[in-house]
Amino acid sequence: APTLLWLRRDLRLTDHPALCAAVARGGPVIPVFVRDELVDGLGTAPAWRLGLGLEVLARALEGVGSRLILRSGDALAVLQGLIAETGARAVMWSRCYDPAYMERDAAVKKTLKEQGVAAQSYSGQLLFEPQTVETKTGGFYRVYTPFWNAVRGRSVPVPLAAPMHVPGPQVWPSSEALSDWRLGAGMRRGVDVVRPHLLLGEAAAQKRLAEFVDGPIAQYKARRDFPAEAATSGLSEPLALGEISPAQVWHAGWRAMQEGAAGAETFLKEVVWREFAYHLAYHTPHMLTRNWRQEWDAFPWQTDPEHPHVIAWKQGRTGIRFVDAAMREMYVTGRMHNRARMIVGSYLTKHLLTDWRIGQAWFADCLTDWDPAANAMGWQWVAGSGPDAAPYFRVFNPVTQLEKFDPKGAYTRRWLAEGQTNPPQTALDWFRAVPLSWGLTAQDRYPAPIVSAEDGRKRALHAYENRGF
Ligand code: FAD
Fold first, then answer.
1. Which pTM does this prediction carry?
2. Are 118 and 132 part of one and the same domain?
3. 417 lies in a domain?
4. Which is the catalytic residue, given 176, 211, 338, 438?
5. Does residue 236 have a known ligand-binding role?
6. Which residues are involved in binding FAD (predicted)?
7. Probe ligand 1: pick from 236, 339, 362, 394, max atoms within 8 Å of CB?
8. pLDDT of residue 150
9. Is 292 a catalytic residue?
10. SS3 (DSSP) at 242
11. Does residue 375 carry a catalytic annotation?
12. What is the tens place of the pLDDT at every residue in 140-149?
Protein backbone atom coordinates (compact mmCIF):
# COMPACT_ATOMS: atom_id res chain seq x y z
CA ALA A 1 0.00 0.00 0.00
CA PRO A 2 1.23 3.54 -0.65
CA THR A 3 2.82 5.75 1.95
CA LEU A 4 2.05 9.45 2.06
CA LEU A 5 5.09 11.62 2.69
CA TRP A 6 3.73 14.84 4.12
CA LEU A 7 6.30 17.57 3.40
CA ARG A 8 6.39 20.86 5.29
CA ARG A 9 9.70 22.47 6.20
CA ASP A 10 11.87 19.67 4.86
CA LEU A 11 12.08 20.47 1.15
CA ARG A 12 15.07 18.28 0.33
CA LEU A 13 15.99 14.75 -0.73
CA THR A 14 19.26 14.23 1.16
CA ASP A 15 19.39 13.60 4.89
CA HIS A 16 15.66 13.14 5.06
CA PRO A 17 14.81 10.42 7.60
CA ALA A 18 11.07 10.51 6.85
CA LEU A 19 11.64 10.12 3.11
CA CYS A 20 14.10 7.27 3.68
CA ALA A 21 11.65 5.53 6.01
CA ALA A 22 8.83 5.95 3.47
CA VAL A 23 10.99 4.44 0.72
CA ALA A 24 12.09 1.62 3.04
CA ARG A 25 8.49 0.48 3.45
CA GLY A 26 8.79 -0.84 -0.06
CA GLY A 27 5.51 0.40 -1.53
CA PRO A 28 4.80 3.49 -3.59
CA VAL A 29 5.52 6.85 -1.96
CA ILE A 30 3.27 9.85 -2.58
CA PRO A 31 4.92 13.15 -1.56
CA VAL A 32 2.34 15.77 -0.70
CA PHE A 33 2.44 19.40 0.37
CA VAL A 34 -0.69 20.84 1.93
CA ARG A 35 -1.54 24.52 1.71
CA ASP A 36 -3.32 24.83 5.02
CA GLU A 37 -4.07 27.73 7.33
CA LEU A 38 -0.48 27.78 8.59
CA VAL A 39 0.76 28.34 5.03
CA ASP A 40 -1.94 30.93 4.44
CA GLY A 41 -0.77 32.71 7.57
CA LEU A 42 2.76 33.23 6.24
CA GLY A 43 4.05 36.72 5.57
CA THR A 44 4.54 37.91 2.01
CA ALA A 45 8.24 37.12 1.46
CA PRO A 46 8.23 33.76 3.27
CA ALA A 47 5.15 32.67 1.30
CA TRP A 48 6.74 33.75 -1.98
CA ARG A 49 9.99 32.00 -1.09
CA LEU A 50 8.08 28.85 -0.16
CA GLY A 51 6.45 28.79 -3.59
CA LEU A 52 9.85 28.95 -5.27
CA GLY A 53 11.17 26.24 -2.99
CA LEU A 54 8.26 23.95 -3.84
CA GLU A 55 8.91 24.45 -7.54
CA VAL A 56 12.53 23.35 -7.15
CA LEU A 57 11.58 20.42 -4.93
CA ALA A 58 8.99 19.20 -7.44
CA ARG A 59 11.68 19.08 -10.13
CA ALA A 60 14.08 17.25 -7.81
CA LEU A 61 11.40 14.67 -7.04
CA GLU A 62 10.79 14.17 -10.75
CA GLY A 63 14.50 13.45 -11.06
CA VAL A 64 14.11 10.40 -8.81
CA GLY A 65 10.95 9.18 -10.54
CA SER A 66 8.49 10.82 -8.19
CA ARG A 67 6.22 13.87 -8.06
CA LEU A 68 5.01 16.49 -5.65
CA ILE A 69 1.25 16.46 -5.09
CA LEU A 70 -0.20 19.79 -4.01
CA ARG A 71 -3.50 20.04 -2.18
CA SER A 72 -5.09 22.78 -0.15
CA GLY A 73 -7.35 22.66 2.89
CA ASP A 74 -7.27 21.50 6.45
CA ALA A 75 -4.24 19.20 6.71
CA LEU A 76 -6.02 16.31 8.39
CA ALA A 77 -8.92 16.43 5.94
CA VAL A 78 -6.53 16.54 2.97
CA LEU A 79 -4.52 13.58 4.27
CA GLN A 80 -7.69 11.61 4.97
CA GLY A 81 -8.93 12.41 1.47
CA LEU A 82 -5.69 11.15 -0.06
CA ILE A 83 -5.79 8.03 2.09
CA ALA A 84 -9.29 7.29 0.79
CA GLU A 85 -8.26 7.97 -2.83
CA THR A 86 -5.01 6.03 -2.86
CA GLY A 87 -5.46 3.31 -0.25
CA ALA A 88 -2.39 4.60 1.63
CA ARG A 89 -1.83 2.90 4.97
CA ALA A 90 0.90 5.12 6.34
CA VAL A 91 1.68 8.84 6.63
CA MET A 92 5.18 10.06 7.45
CA TRP A 93 6.56 13.47 8.13
CA SER A 94 9.46 15.39 9.69
CA ARG A 95 8.69 16.97 13.02
CA CYS A 96 8.40 20.75 13.34
CA TYR A 97 8.76 22.20 16.78
CA ASP A 98 6.95 25.51 16.87
CA PRO A 99 3.78 25.47 18.95
CA ALA A 100 1.28 25.81 16.11
CA TYR A 101 2.74 22.85 14.26
CA MET A 102 3.17 20.68 17.32
CA GLU A 103 -0.43 21.09 18.41
CA ARG A 104 -1.79 20.42 14.94
CA ASP A 105 0.53 17.48 14.26
CA ALA A 106 -0.35 15.79 17.54
CA ALA A 107 -4.05 15.97 16.64
CA VAL A 108 -3.38 14.62 13.13
CA LYS A 109 -1.32 11.75 14.49
CA LYS A 110 -3.94 10.79 17.06
CA THR A 111 -6.81 10.74 14.57
CA LEU A 112 -4.89 8.84 11.90
CA LYS A 113 -3.80 6.23 14.42
CA GLU A 114 -7.38 5.83 15.65
CA GLN A 115 -8.31 5.13 12.06
CA GLY A 116 -5.68 2.42 11.81
CA VAL A 117 -3.24 4.38 9.67
CA ALA A 118 0.43 4.22 10.64
CA ALA A 119 1.32 7.84 11.37
CA GLN A 120 4.98 8.34 12.09
CA SER A 121 7.04 11.49 12.56
CA TYR A 122 10.81 11.76 12.21
CA SER A 123 13.59 14.11 13.20
CA GLY A 124 15.41 16.18 10.61
CA GLN A 125 14.63 19.81 11.36
CA LEU A 126 16.89 19.99 14.40
CA LEU A 127 20.14 18.47 15.60
CA PHE A 128 18.80 17.76 19.07
CA GLU A 129 15.18 17.05 19.90
CA PRO A 130 14.22 19.88 22.26
CA GLN A 131 12.89 17.56 24.96
CA THR A 132 16.13 15.58 25.09
CA VAL A 133 18.22 18.47 26.37
CA GLU A 134 17.66 18.81 30.09
CA THR A 135 19.30 20.54 33.00
CA LYS A 136 20.60 18.41 35.87
CA THR A 137 17.30 18.89 37.68
CA GLY A 138 15.25 17.87 34.66
CA GLY A 139 14.25 21.36 33.60
CA PHE A 140 15.00 23.29 30.43
CA TYR A 141 17.70 25.84 29.70
CA ARG A 142 16.96 29.54 29.85
CA VAL A 143 20.50 30.63 29.15
CA TYR A 144 22.49 29.82 26.05
CA THR A 145 25.96 28.90 27.35
CA PRO A 146 24.85 26.01 29.59
CA PHE A 147 22.69 24.81 26.70
CA TRP A 148 25.72 24.85 24.43
CA ASN A 149 27.79 23.01 27.04
CA ALA A 150 25.08 20.37 27.32
CA VAL A 151 25.00 19.61 23.60
CA ARG A 152 28.45 20.36 22.25
CA GLY A 153 29.82 16.88 22.90
CA ARG A 154 26.81 15.00 21.59
CA SER A 155 27.14 12.96 18.47
CA VAL A 156 25.02 14.04 15.55
CA PRO A 157 23.88 11.24 13.21
CA VAL A 158 25.76 11.15 9.92
CA PRO A 159 23.58 12.67 7.17
CA LEU A 160 21.67 10.19 5.04
CA ALA A 161 22.08 9.95 1.29
CA ALA A 162 19.15 10.72 -0.98
CA PRO A 163 17.27 7.70 -2.31
CA MET A 164 18.30 6.93 -5.89
CA HIS A 165 14.71 6.23 -6.78
CA VAL A 166 11.43 7.03 -5.06
CA PRO A 167 8.82 4.56 -6.30
CA GLY A 168 5.50 6.11 -7.27
CA PRO A 169 1.99 4.70 -7.58
CA GLN A 170 0.61 3.37 -10.89
CA VAL A 171 -1.89 6.18 -10.93
CA TRP A 172 -0.98 9.47 -9.31
CA PRO A 173 -3.62 11.38 -7.38
CA SER A 174 -4.44 14.75 -8.90
CA SER A 175 -2.47 17.81 -7.88
CA GLU A 176 -3.41 21.45 -7.75
CA ALA A 177 -1.23 23.81 -9.79
CA LEU A 178 1.38 25.76 -7.84
CA SER A 179 0.73 28.85 -9.96
CA ASP A 180 -2.92 28.81 -8.86
CA TRP A 181 -1.83 29.11 -5.25
CA ARG A 182 -0.31 32.52 -5.93
CA LEU A 183 1.96 32.17 -2.91
CA GLY A 184 3.31 35.57 -1.90
CA ALA A 185 1.20 37.32 -4.53
CA GLY A 186 1.89 40.67 -2.89
CA MET A 187 5.63 40.27 -3.52
CA ARG A 188 5.73 42.65 -6.47
CA ARG A 189 9.41 43.34 -5.95
CA GLY A 190 10.15 39.63 -5.95
CA VAL A 191 11.03 38.71 -9.49
CA ASP A 192 12.93 41.84 -10.49
CA VAL A 193 14.71 42.76 -7.32
CA VAL A 194 14.81 40.03 -4.68
CA ARG A 195 15.12 36.91 -6.82
CA PRO A 196 18.83 37.31 -7.74
CA HIS A 197 19.68 37.42 -4.03
CA LEU A 198 18.06 34.09 -3.14
CA LEU A 199 19.85 30.91 -2.24
CA LEU A 200 17.23 28.66 -3.76
CA GLY A 201 16.95 24.91 -3.44
CA GLU A 202 18.93 22.02 -2.12
CA ALA A 203 21.72 21.96 -4.71
CA ALA A 204 22.49 25.66 -4.24
CA ALA A 205 22.51 25.26 -0.46
CA GLN A 206 24.95 22.35 -0.65
CA LYS A 207 27.21 24.29 -2.95
CA ARG A 208 27.17 27.28 -0.60
CA LEU A 209 27.96 25.10 2.40
CA ALA A 210 30.92 23.54 0.59
CA GLU A 211 32.26 26.97 -0.41
CA PHE A 212 31.77 28.34 3.06
CA VAL A 213 33.65 25.57 4.87
CA ASP A 214 36.39 25.77 2.27
CA GLY A 215 37.07 29.45 2.83
CA PRO A 216 35.15 32.01 4.91
CA ILE A 217 34.62 29.72 7.92
CA ALA A 218 38.28 30.18 8.90
CA GLN A 219 37.70 33.92 9.30
CA TYR A 220 34.18 33.56 10.68
CA LYS A 221 34.97 34.51 14.26
CA ALA A 222 36.90 37.61 13.25
CA ARG A 223 34.70 38.84 10.40
CA ARG A 224 31.14 37.75 11.04
CA ASP A 225 30.10 41.04 12.61
CA PHE A 226 30.98 43.20 9.63
CA PRO A 227 27.79 43.60 7.63
CA ALA A 228 29.47 44.60 4.37
CA GLU A 229 31.39 41.34 4.19
CA ALA A 230 30.31 37.95 2.93
CA ALA A 231 31.76 36.39 6.06
CA THR A 232 28.79 34.30 7.21
CA SER A 233 27.27 31.20 5.64
CA GLY A 234 24.01 32.68 4.36
CA LEU A 235 22.41 29.31 5.09
CA SER A 236 19.53 30.59 7.22
CA GLU A 237 17.28 30.78 4.15
CA PRO A 238 17.60 27.13 3.05
CA LEU A 239 17.61 26.05 6.71
CA ALA A 240 14.27 27.77 7.25
CA LEU A 241 12.61 25.58 4.63
CA GLY A 242 14.72 22.52 5.28
CA GLU A 243 16.39 22.67 1.88
CA ILE A 244 19.51 21.73 3.79
CA SER A 245 19.57 19.81 7.07
CA PRO A 246 21.19 21.12 10.24
CA ALA A 247 23.13 17.84 10.49
CA GLN A 248 24.70 18.48 7.09
CA VAL A 249 25.73 21.94 8.24
CA TRP A 250 26.96 20.62 11.58
CA HIS A 251 29.11 17.87 10.10
CA ALA A 252 30.68 20.19 7.53
CA GLY A 253 31.48 22.71 10.28
CA TRP A 254 32.80 19.98 12.55
CA ARG A 255 35.12 18.69 9.85
CA ALA A 256 36.43 22.19 9.27
CA MET A 257 37.07 22.48 13.00
CA GLN A 258 38.98 19.18 13.03
CA GLU A 259 41.03 20.46 10.11
CA GLY A 260 41.97 23.47 12.16
CA ALA A 261 39.71 26.24 10.78
CA ALA A 262 39.91 28.85 13.52
CA GLY A 263 36.36 30.16 13.21
CA ALA A 264 34.62 26.82 12.97
CA GLU A 265 33.70 26.38 16.61
CA THR A 266 32.14 29.84 16.70
CA PHE A 267 30.15 28.87 13.63
CA LEU A 268 28.92 25.65 15.27
CA LYS A 269 27.86 27.71 18.26
CA GLU A 270 25.75 29.91 16.02
CA VAL A 271 24.13 26.86 14.46
CA VAL A 272 23.24 25.81 17.99
CA TRP A 273 21.57 29.19 18.64
CA ARG A 274 18.95 27.97 16.19
CA GLU A 275 18.54 24.84 18.33
CA PHE A 276 18.27 26.98 21.43
CA ALA A 277 15.49 29.02 19.81
CA TYR A 278 13.46 25.85 19.29
CA HIS A 279 14.31 24.58 22.75
CA LEU A 280 12.78 27.77 24.15
CA ALA A 281 9.81 27.71 21.78
CA TYR A 282 9.15 24.12 22.79
CA HIS A 283 9.28 24.73 26.53
CA THR A 284 7.84 28.24 26.60
CA PRO A 285 5.58 28.56 23.55
CA HIS A 286 4.46 32.01 24.67
CA MET A 287 7.87 33.24 23.50
CA LEU A 288 6.43 33.52 20.00
CA THR A 289 3.65 35.92 20.90
CA ARG A 290 4.10 37.40 24.37
CA ASN A 291 6.83 38.86 26.53
CA TRP A 292 8.88 35.95 27.76
CA ARG A 293 9.35 37.82 31.03
CA GLN A 294 5.94 38.78 32.27
CA GLU A 295 7.13 41.89 34.07
CA TRP A 296 7.48 43.47 30.65
CA ASP A 297 3.72 43.31 30.13
CA ALA A 298 3.46 46.49 32.18
CA PHE A 299 5.97 48.38 30.04
CA PRO A 300 4.30 51.21 28.10
CA TRP A 301 5.45 50.29 24.60
CA GLN A 302 4.34 52.34 21.67
CA THR A 303 1.94 49.88 20.02
CA ASP A 304 0.60 51.72 16.97
CA PRO A 305 1.93 50.00 13.83
CA GLU A 306 1.03 53.13 11.82
CA HIS A 307 2.95 55.52 14.05
CA PRO A 308 5.13 57.82 11.88
CA HIS A 309 8.25 56.52 13.63
CA VAL A 310 7.34 52.95 12.75
CA ILE A 311 6.64 53.92 9.15
CA ALA A 312 10.01 55.66 8.92
CA TRP A 313 11.68 52.58 10.39
CA LYS A 314 10.01 50.22 7.92
CA GLN A 315 10.78 52.54 5.05
CA GLY A 316 14.48 52.88 5.89
CA ARG A 317 14.02 56.62 6.48
CA THR A 318 14.88 57.11 10.15
CA GLY A 319 17.90 59.27 9.37
CA ILE A 320 20.08 56.78 11.26
CA ARG A 321 22.38 55.37 8.62
CA PHE A 322 23.00 51.91 10.05
CA VAL A 323 19.29 51.36 10.64
CA ASP A 324 18.24 52.61 7.21
CA ALA A 325 20.90 50.65 5.34
CA ALA A 326 19.82 47.48 7.12
CA MET A 327 16.08 47.97 6.55
CA ARG A 328 16.76 48.51 2.87
CA GLU A 329 19.02 45.49 2.71
CA MET A 330 16.14 43.39 4.00
CA TYR A 331 13.64 44.86 1.57
CA VAL A 332 15.90 44.22 -1.42
CA THR A 333 17.55 40.90 -0.54
CA GLY A 334 15.05 39.26 1.82
CA ARG A 335 17.82 38.95 4.38
CA MET A 336 19.63 41.15 6.86
CA HIS A 337 23.01 40.76 8.49
CA ASN A 338 22.81 39.56 12.09
CA ARG A 339 24.49 42.60 13.59
CA ALA A 340 22.17 44.81 11.60
CA ARG A 341 19.16 42.87 12.92
CA MET A 342 20.31 43.68 16.42
CA ILE A 343 20.79 47.35 15.58
CA VAL A 344 17.42 47.88 13.90
CA GLY A 345 15.74 45.88 16.65
CA SER A 346 17.38 47.90 19.36
CA TYR A 347 16.53 51.16 17.64
CA LEU A 348 12.87 50.21 17.27
CA THR A 349 12.38 48.89 20.79
CA LYS A 350 14.64 51.28 22.69
CA HIS A 351 15.08 54.54 20.79
CA LEU A 352 11.52 54.41 19.47
CA LEU A 353 10.12 52.55 22.51
CA THR A 354 8.03 50.42 20.20
CA ASP A 355 6.61 47.00 21.00
CA TRP A 356 8.97 44.32 19.64
CA ARG A 357 6.01 42.49 18.09
CA ILE A 358 5.68 45.26 15.51
CA GLY A 359 9.24 44.57 14.41
CA GLN A 360 8.73 40.84 14.61
CA ALA A 361 5.72 41.09 12.29
CA TRP A 362 7.55 43.27 9.75
CA PHE A 363 10.47 40.84 9.68
CA ALA A 364 7.97 37.99 9.24
CA ASP A 365 6.65 39.79 6.19
CA CYS A 366 10.00 40.67 4.61
CA LEU A 367 12.50 37.91 5.41
CA THR A 368 13.08 35.03 3.04
CA ASP A 369 14.86 33.27 5.92
CA TRP A 370 11.98 33.88 8.30
CA ASP A 371 12.00 31.36 11.11
CA PRO A 372 9.32 31.61 13.80
CA ALA A 373 11.55 30.63 16.72
CA ALA A 374 14.74 32.47 15.72
CA ASN A 375 12.77 35.61 14.89
CA ALA A 376 10.86 35.64 18.17
CA MET A 377 13.98 34.88 20.20
CA GLY A 378 15.95 37.57 18.36
CA TRP A 379 13.30 40.19 18.99
CA GLN A 380 12.83 39.34 22.64
CA TRP A 381 16.59 39.39 23.03
CA VAL A 382 16.96 42.92 21.65
CA ALA A 383 13.90 44.18 23.47
CA GLY A 384 15.18 42.84 26.77
CA SER A 385 12.00 40.85 27.42
CA GLY A 386 13.48 37.46 26.57
CA PRO A 387 15.13 34.79 28.69
CA ASP A 388 18.81 35.21 27.85
CA ALA A 389 18.28 38.82 26.90
CA ALA A 390 20.52 41.82 26.69
CA PRO A 391 20.10 43.78 29.93
CA TYR A 392 17.73 46.74 29.61
CA PHE A 393 20.50 49.30 30.02
CA ARG A 394 22.36 47.90 27.03
CA VAL A 395 21.16 50.28 24.37
CA PHE A 396 23.13 49.82 21.17
CA ASN A 397 24.40 53.11 19.84
CA PRO A 398 23.73 52.84 16.11
CA VAL A 399 26.28 55.55 15.31
CA THR A 400 29.26 54.11 17.16
CA GLN A 401 28.26 50.60 16.06
CA LEU A 402 28.49 51.78 12.48
CA GLU A 403 31.92 53.29 13.06
CA LYS A 404 33.06 50.01 14.57
CA PHE A 405 31.54 47.52 12.17
CA ASP A 406 31.45 49.49 8.93
CA PRO A 407 34.54 51.64 9.32
CA LYS A 408 34.93 52.37 5.62
CA GLY A 409 31.23 52.97 5.02
CA ALA A 410 30.96 50.10 2.54
CA TYR A 411 27.67 48.86 3.95
CA THR A 412 25.93 52.22 4.00
CA ARG A 413 27.20 53.10 0.53
CA ARG A 414 25.77 49.83 -0.73
CA TRP A 415 22.29 50.65 0.51
CA LEU A 416 21.87 54.41 0.82
CA ALA A 417 21.73 56.17 -2.54
CA GLU A 418 21.03 59.65 -1.21
CA GLY A 419 23.98 61.98 -1.51
CA GLN A 420 26.03 59.68 -3.72
CA THR A 421 26.87 60.86 -7.24
CA ASN A 422 27.17 57.31 -8.50
CA PRO A 423 25.13 55.10 -6.21
CA PRO A 424 25.61 51.35 -6.69
CA GLN A 425 22.86 49.23 -8.19
CA THR A 426 21.93 47.78 -4.79
CA ALA A 427 21.04 51.23 -3.45
CA LEU A 428 19.07 52.06 -6.60
CA ASP A 429 17.30 48.72 -6.49
CA TRP A 430 15.69 49.73 -3.26
CA PHE A 431 13.95 52.61 -5.02
CA ARG A 432 12.76 50.13 -7.66
CA ALA A 433 11.56 47.79 -4.93
CA VAL A 434 9.49 50.11 -2.76
CA PRO A 435 5.79 50.62 -3.50
CA LEU A 436 4.85 53.81 -5.32
CA SER A 437 2.66 54.67 -2.36
CA TRP A 438 5.80 55.34 -0.30
CA GLY A 439 6.45 58.25 -2.64
CA LEU A 440 10.25 57.99 -2.62
CA THR A 441 12.84 58.76 -5.29
CA ALA A 442 16.61 58.48 -5.44
CA GLN A 443 16.77 62.27 -5.68
CA ASP A 444 15.23 62.69 -2.22
CA ARG A 445 17.40 64.21 0.46
CA TYR A 446 18.50 61.89 3.19
CA PRO A 447 16.33 62.61 6.25
CA ALA A 448 17.51 64.04 9.55
CA PRO A 449 17.29 61.56 12.46
CA ILE A 450 13.73 61.11 13.72
CA VAL A 451 15.24 60.28 17.11
CA SER A 452 18.97 60.73 17.54
CA ALA A 453 21.22 58.07 19.02
CA GLU A 454 21.75 60.05 22.21
CA ASP A 455 18.19 61.31 22.75
CA GLY A 456 16.83 57.83 22.17
CA ARG A 457 19.19 56.31 24.65
CA LYS A 458 18.24 58.82 27.34
CA ARG A 459 14.55 58.32 26.64
CA ALA A 460 14.85 54.57 26.85
CA LEU A 461 16.81 54.57 30.09
CA HIS A 462 14.36 57.05 31.57
CA ALA A 463 11.39 54.88 30.58
CA TYR A 464 12.99 51.78 32.09
CA GLU A 465 13.87 53.51 35.31
CA ASN A 466 10.32 54.79 35.62
CA ARG A 467 9.09 51.24 35.48
CA GLY A 468 11.44 50.22 38.23
CA PHE A 469 13.73 48.09 36.06
P1 FAD B 1 25.60 32.34 10.07
O2 FAD B 1 26.32 33.38 10.86
O3 FAD B 1 26.32 31.71 8.95
O4 FAD B 1 25.11 31.24 11.11
C5 FAD B 1 24.82 29.90 10.72
C6 FAD B 1 23.41 29.53 11.12
O7 FAD B 1 23.25 29.57 12.53
C8 FAD B 1 22.36 30.47 10.57
O9 FAD B 1 22.02 30.17 9.25
C10 FAD B 1 21.22 30.24 11.55
O11 FAD B 1 20.49 29.07 11.23
C12 FAD B 1 21.93 29.98 12.86
N13 FAD B 1 22.00 31.22 13.63
C14 FAD B 1 22.98 32.15 13.63
N15 FAD B 1 22.71 33.14 14.52
C16 FAD B 1 21.52 32.83 15.06
C17 FAD B 1 20.71 33.46 16.04
N18 FAD B 1 21.06 34.61 16.65
N19 FAD B 1 19.53 32.88 16.36
C20 FAD B 1 19.15 31.72 15.79
N21 FAD B 1 19.88 31.08 14.85
C22 FAD B 1 21.05 31.62 14.51
N23 FAD B 1 17.42 33.89 11.94
C24 FAD B 1 16.64 33.20 11.11
O25 FAD B 1 17.06 32.17 10.59
N26 FAD B 1 15.36 33.61 10.84
C27 FAD B 1 14.82 34.73 11.40
O28 FAD B 1 13.65 35.04 11.15
C29 FAD B 1 15.64 35.50 12.26
N30 FAD B 1 15.18 36.65 12.81
C31 FAD B 1 16.01 37.38 13.65
C32 FAD B 1 15.51 38.55 14.24
C33 FAD B 1 16.32 39.31 15.08
C34 FAD B 1 15.77 40.57 15.71
C35 FAD B 1 17.63 38.89 15.35
C36 FAD B 1 18.53 39.70 16.25
C37 FAD B 1 18.12 37.73 14.78
C38 FAD B 1 17.33 36.95 13.93
N39 FAD B 1 17.81 35.77 13.33
C40 FAD B 1 16.98 35.04 12.51
C41 FAD B 1 19.14 35.23 13.67
C42 FAD B 1 20.31 35.63 12.75
O43 FAD B 1 20.30 37.00 12.51
C44 FAD B 1 20.29 34.88 11.41
O45 FAD B 1 20.13 33.50 11.64
C46 FAD B 1 21.59 35.11 10.64
O47 FAD B 1 21.78 36.46 10.37
C48 FAD B 1 21.54 34.32 9.35
O49 FAD B 1 22.67 34.55 8.56
P50 FAD B 1 23.64 33.36 8.18
O51 FAD B 1 22.85 32.20 7.68
O52 FAD B 1 24.68 33.91 7.28
O53 FAD B 1 24.22 32.99 9.60
1. 0.98
2. no
3. yes
4. 338
5. yes
6. 220, 232-236, 267, 369-371
7. 236
8. 97
9. no
10. coil
11. no
12. 999 999 999 9
Rg, the chain, Cα only: 23
253 part of a folded domain: yes
- What is the C-alpha separation between 136 and 267, in angstroms, rounded? 26
Is 136 a domain residue?
yes
Is residue 235 marked as binding?
Answer: yes
Asked if the model's pLDDT at residue 177 lies above 90, the reply is yes
CA distance linking residue 268 with residue 128, whole number of Å: 13
Q: How far apart are CA 122 and CA 367, in angstroms?
A: 27
342 in contact with ligand 1, CB cutoff 6 A: yes
**Same domain membership, residue 102 and residue 137:** no
Q: Which residue has the higher pLDDT, 330 or 468?
A: 330
Same domain? For 107 and 245 the reply is no
The Å distance, Cα 104 to ligand 1 centre, comes to 26
Reply yes or no on whether the pLDDT at 469 is more than 70: no
Report the distance separating Cα 301 and Cα 350, nearest Å.
9
pLDDT exceeds 80 at position 388: no
Ligand 1 proximity of 275 Cβ (cutoff 6 Å): no
Based on the fold, state whether residues 134 and 101 are members of the same structural domain: no
Torsion, Cα of 122, 128, 130, 136 (10° steps): 140
Closest-CA residue, ligand 1 atom 35, reads: 378
Question: Does 259 participate in catalysis according to the annotation?
Answer: no
Give the domain extent around 321.
294-466
Whether 369 is in the pocket of ligand 1, judged by its Cβ within 6 Å, is: yes
**3-class DSSP state of 272:** helix
CATH code: domain of residue 404: 1.10.579.10
Share of the chain above pLDDT 90, in %: 95
- Whether 301 sits among the annotated catalytic residues: the reply is yes
State the CATH number of the domain containing residue 51: 3.40.50.620
Same domain, 71 and 218: no
